[in-house]
């Protein structure tokens, strides 16, 4: 049993069963007498782990053979640069600005020479909604969105229909939270340290027709190199890939993405219902764009926020402090947070309200 409920935005709580399984196997992987972190990435045992992990991801997300799956390093942040470098043809890309991570993605694209057009933005209201976007995407190499905004707590529930122009999505904070039609996207990327496991691994799902032979890029920054070398051009993040495999098994055991999505919606609804009636706590996002992964809230009084965060720490609720740019509180309730964890948070909020009321 867990001793605390951890609401961290990432690295985040991962399924307890995964931690237990990793612990059990840590000293001797598959009775080899060697730890998974000691074996070569070129060994047949590890190649099998990679192949199986890719197969499980393809199966859960119904990823067709038109797409490659890459296991990379450098975090989602490296993708902010790698994507424009690899997808550049005309040299112009469209970005929908829905928060801090979209801003960073766009800035990085500019640094590598991409002309960035911000075609829609919600910065007029502290990014507390998803803006409407124009429908003509001609003249762009790709259209970039951040599908879930980890800091601000908003999500795209519909995606731009970009036709022949590839749609690129940073899904770091909501991949695997619900079923997804991958075929709408040219490229999906996600840092693993939320719904996919631990830090050190970035998953890229890329339509094969976007892979190009190109000489000008350093090999480590070239998607095609990684694809042709089956994510083992250099030493991949072996332990993080192994953990991803365990997480994917866990998701399948939970009943797959439909069942996971149902539970995620129930969890978020429980917390939003509490926030919507609370006299002390207010959510910062209203309406249809509310995230079911990251839920920011405030009391409206910085000193009281601070007191509440301390109260949480004394009551087995960890990492509830909001991001330093946003303030207040934030509950990140990824796949691995069970309903009991959300209920425990609500009980602590209610107790604090009673204490102060
Ligand atoms: N994009 C989003 C949506 C994020 O939440 C984060 C933070 N984990 C990042 C990008 C940056 O990820 P990383 O730290 O893996 O570079």
TrEMBL record:
Q: For this protein, what is the EC number?
A: 2.6.1.52
Keyword set includes Cytoplasm: yes
User: Matching Pfam families, A to Z?
Assistant: Aminotran_5 (PF00266)
Chain positions recorded as pyridoxal 5'-phosphate binding sites? 76-77, 101, 150, 170, 193, 234-235
- List, in alphabetical order, the Gene Ontology terms for molecular function in this entry: O-phospho-L-serine:2-oxoglutarate aminotransferase activity
Q: What does the entry list as the binding residues for L-glutamate? A: 42
Q: How is the cofactor bound?
A: Binds 1 pyridoxal phosphate per subunit.
* Residues covered by the Aminotransferase class V domain: 4-345
- UniProt pathway annotation: Amino-acid biosynthesis; L-serine biosynthesis; L-serine from 3-phospho-D-glycerate: step 2/3
Q: Which reaction does it catalyse?
A: 4-(phosphooxy)-L-threonine + 2-oxoglutarate = (R)-3-hydroxy-2-oxo-4-phosphooxybutanoate + L-glutamate; O-phospho-L-serine + 2-oxoglutarate = 3-phosphooxypyruvate + L-glutamate
Q: What is its main location?
A: cytoplasm
Which InterPro entries does its entry note?
Aminotrans_V_dom, Aminotrans_V_PyrdxlP_BS, Pser_aminoTfrase, PyrdxlP-dep_Trfase, PyrdxlP-dep_Trfase_major, PyrdxlP-dep_Trfase_small
State its location(s): Cytoplasm
UniProt keywords, alphabetically: Amino-acid biosynthesis, Aminotransferase, Cytoplasm, Pyridoxal phosphate, Serine biosynthesis, Transferase
Q: Which residues carry this modification: N6-(pyridoxal phosphate)lysine?
A: 194
Superkingdom, taxonomy of origin:
Bacteria
Q: Which family would the database say this protein is a member of?
A: Belongs to the class-V pyridoxal-phosphate-dependent aminotransferase family. SerC subfamily.
Quaternary structure, from the entry: Homodimer.
Explain the purpose of this protein.
Answer: Catalyzes the reversible conversion of 3-phosphohydroxypyruvate to phosphoserine and of 3-hydroxy-2-oxo-4-phosphonooxybutanoate to phosphohydroxythreonine.
Supply the name of the protein: Phosphoserine aminotransferase
Task: Name the source organism.
Answer: Fundicoccus culcitae
What gene does the UniProt entry assign to this protein? serC
